[in-house]
Amino acid sequence: MLSLSTVFCKAERAHFFNSSNRIAEYFTEGRSLLVRWKMEILIGLLISSLSLYCDFTDAECLVISPARLVVKYGDPASSNCSSDTPVEIGWESTQGGVGLTDKEVKILNWRVDSVTDWENNPKCFTDGGQCEKQLDITVYKLPDSVSISYRKYPDPMVEGHQYLLQCLVQNIAPIGRLRVTFYKVNTTGEQTELDTQHKSKDNIKTPENGTYTLDFTPGRDDAGAQLLCSAMLDLGPEGPQPPAVMDSNRLNINVHYKPQITMSPGCFSMTITEGNTLSLNCSANGNPAPSYNWLLPQADPNTMKERSVVTITNMAKSHSGDYTCIAINPLGNSTCTVNVEVTDAECLVVSPARLVVKYGDPASSNCSSDTPVEMGWEAIQGGMGLTDKEVKILNWRVDSVTEWYSTPTCYTEGGQCLKELDITVYKLPDSVSISYRKYPDPMVEGHQYLLQCLVQNIAPIGRLRVTFYKVSTTGEQTELDTQQKSKDNIKTPENGTYTLHFTPGRDDDGAQLLCSAMLDLGPEGPQPPPVMDSNRLNINVHYKPQITRSPGCFSMRITEGDTLSLACSANVDYLPIIAGLASVVILLVISCFIYSSYYKHTRMSH
């Protein structure tokens, strides 16, 4: 099929603009003057338009088959030159040339047993040189070797420094069809492309050496990886398939870098109970391997330092302070400080220390002491006074939690020791719904619309995460946005409204929108966290036409006598526009037919 925009008649363009009268005479012979005058105007307009679009060429007098050859140096090559009618034919060539035949023939073969001329351009010709046709031949040679090296060898590499890699491809032709790719191969064998290079040397056909360079900056993750380059000779569809590839040797990467500490439990503040053992592990990733030093708040006979680990037994309040680890190697150092606070030993322990309870469900927790004491529970629900005698454990229990702000507290006589139970009361939403703030019917491509997700009667709303999704026509679900509101102080049920600006495209037509409400209450809550989805909104998108034309919107040639076929399809939501485009296509096809008939008639008359 041929594109509308390709019909362009440049051979006799000036002649076309002056031909309306003769064409009118051809089509209106024997008709009235008024009809002839109208036809002259109409056909003149058609010719003016078609002169910009139609292109007719003479049929070829010689045909070479195959028209293009890709031959390895030293291999045989062959091609035929043919004509529709018998003529005297010859081949002009530095290898395998054939003079004009003694008699007229329809076909003449060119053949070479071993191609050794890089610049050979075989040409088929007829008697007197009235018609000539050149064979497109590419002679190639695979490289003798491919090697990769550093322009200046680094021993070792240093993280963050830049090094110049060099890939040498020796004795290859044609070098203009060579593509060189640099790769990095990590320790697991995964190969990553760093860069691909191609030099524009289409005029060089003889073997050449090619040097390709790349600036490479290693990181610590590159330690132990390898570098290589790969040479691919891409000679098109007529060449070897798949294209011939030769890899270089591999360079091992040895990267030195300064230490980077990974401290356990981390470089931050921590607390420890008096009498317990403190153990800090300061491991560092560095090359060369680092040495370690510790700075402590005070010297202590209970302290043991062994490389990256420091341990202190029987912690006392005097041990509070900063513990600093220093990791050092020749490229630098890294430090990490942990602030340690030593607290009094607990007199009461609540277990479990945190409860997550659904509204209306039962709840229970124990308060215990290492030594017997009089203890009680202070609570809006399930409160208990001090025990009559000293005990080691006391249970708090409620058959149905109905108080949102309950904070049960275990205490000893005189309030000398207090321990609060962390309790979260939750309620799942009554409903989750999605809607447009202002309903669009239909949506228009590129316009922005406000989506609204309403979650009704949920607690605690500060632990709610709302996610907007788009579901394609194939069922694939895409996350658009996730939102969470900071309302940790609100414990009673609330309604939550969440909004999102959505801009549809033509690919969204027929898809659906929804929102999902997830109540994430942490590891003590339901697992997996409960999720409720909303209803789904169907997306109907209107958009302007986008033509998909075969073979494309560009110029083309067609041989005289062949059939012209044009297809113009459009992706659009408006049928009237499609009908209008179809009318234009039909008019131009009819116009091309009229012009073609006239063109042939005038040529025959001459």
Automatic annotation (TrEMBL):
Keywords: Membrane, Transmembrane, Transmembrane helix. The keyword Transmembrane applies. Residues 259-343 form the Ig-like domain. PANTHER family: INTERCELLULAR ADHESION MOLECULE, INTERCELLULAR ADHESION MOLECULE 5. InterPro entries: ICAM_VCAM, Ig-like_dom, Ig-like_dom_sf, Ig-like_fold, Ig_sub, Ig_sub2. GO terms for biological process: cell adhesion. This is Ig-like domain-containing protein. It comes from the Eukaryota. GO terms for molecular function: integrin binding. The chain crosses the membrane at residues 574-596.
